[in-house]
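User: Predict structure, ligand 3-hydroxypyruvic acid.
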Amino acid sequence: MTLNRMFEKKQAAFGPFLKLPNPALVEIIGIAGFDFVIIDCEHGPLDMLVAEEMVRAAKLSGLSAVIRVSENNPALISRALDIGADAVQVPQVSTRTDAEKVVQAAKFAPLGERGVCRYVRAAGYSSVDRQAYFTLANQNTRTIIHIEGEEGMENIQDILQVEGIDVIFIGPYDLSQSLGLPGQVDHPLVVARMREIIDRAREAGKIVGTFVDDVDAARKWLALGVQYIAYSVDTGIIYQSFKEIADSLYQG
Ligand code: 3PY
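Assistant: Predicted complex:
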């Protein structure tokens, strides 16, 4: 299972954010049957060295590897793609110019100006045919942008016009903060803004993604047309499992 199912067959896809630096964890998620992992270099300690090991584990486990970079920075985006991520996820995109900057960094000419190096993992360390690599990379590299602030919401129509953006990802937590309601992701105002973005993005033919904390939230957003579901975070899922076990052992 991979993100291709979502892009080609228009089916929903599911995967967690990962903050723990561990390729075995990626394998476990693949065996469990998810579609992708989001290797989170925005929040948490992950660096590119361990991210590369986690991308490798994703490939071996039949998962797509998405890397969330810490900011909209061409050097970070090209490093994430050079180590072989299938998609780059970029936080805090607020304007059309921000969205264009993502495409410029993620695509080679003529679509963009991604830094060129054929000796990286993504190019099979130079084993991929010189001409084919650039074309294939432009075809296969996906871009996912976060709309999660008031400015991004105001500029959504302009952002949606940018060619080369594959998924509009709504960050509910950052969005709730930008509305003065930090953490209140179920607040009616936050939900209304999310629904607005979903409707506009879907009208523009874009795939929409969001983050959920639980299965009920996943079902709610799936029913409203969200397809790329970032399902919780490794640390939270592991904590919850251990807590349930500890509670039953100590109370039972
Ligand atoms: C948000 O909810 O703001 C996110 O970025 C998801 O982690």
